[in-house]
What does this fold into?
Amino acid sequence: MAVHQLSIVGLGMMGGAIGMAARRTGAATRVIGVADTMETMELARAKGAVDEATLDVRAAVQNADLVILCVPVRVMIDAVAAVLPACREVTVIADVGSSKTILVWQAEALCHKL
It folds into this structure.
């Protein structure tokens, strides 16, 4: 079953690969990527990793069914803090980070503040 909108925060190697796979397999109807530079946005579009790319994380996730955070672990909680207020209550948020325990504790604390 495909999600309507997949938003990928971070369009490096992992985020780009996820976007290309989602588009190729039809796992998502629409893939929106968030990059930190215009150059990365243009490259992701040119490679077919995303349907749309933006620098605005909140705009990219506001209608997402699934958000995948593909940023370095050291800034993962910052990414969580940026997307949580903009996501719908039913949006699923996942990440590709290798460390989970502390991140989950910090993310739960952010959820309780909303």
